[in-house]
Design the sequence.
């Protein structure tokens, strides 16, 4: 199990990015959270197995249908043992 901190920049707020991220996380079985940041970015912390995390990261690079992802920054973090995936407000 791995843990990644992911920051997504571009047109990622106001385009249902968090909703689609939640759906993708549930589909892939990864755990963690997603939230909007005051600077217009979206931030995720996600945990799971290698293949599922790779697929989640690939999805983040595309984003929701109306988003325009400019950049995805990924930093490996300390495993926290999330039990589900949520949208933080």
Sequence:
């Amino acid at each position: 199990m791995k843990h990644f901190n992911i920051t997504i920049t571009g047109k990622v707020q106001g385009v249902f990015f968090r909703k689609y991220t939640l759906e993708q996380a549930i589909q892939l079985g990864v755990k963690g959270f997603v939230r909007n940041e005051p600077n217009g970015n979206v931030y995720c912390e996600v945990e799971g197995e290698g293949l599922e995390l790779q697929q989640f990261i690939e999805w983040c690079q595309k984003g929701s249908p109306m988003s325009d992802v400019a950049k995805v920054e990924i930093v490996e973090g300390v495993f926290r043992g999330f039990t589900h995936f949520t949208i933080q407000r």
Summary: Strands lie at 2-11, 31-36, 42-48, 68-76, 85-88.
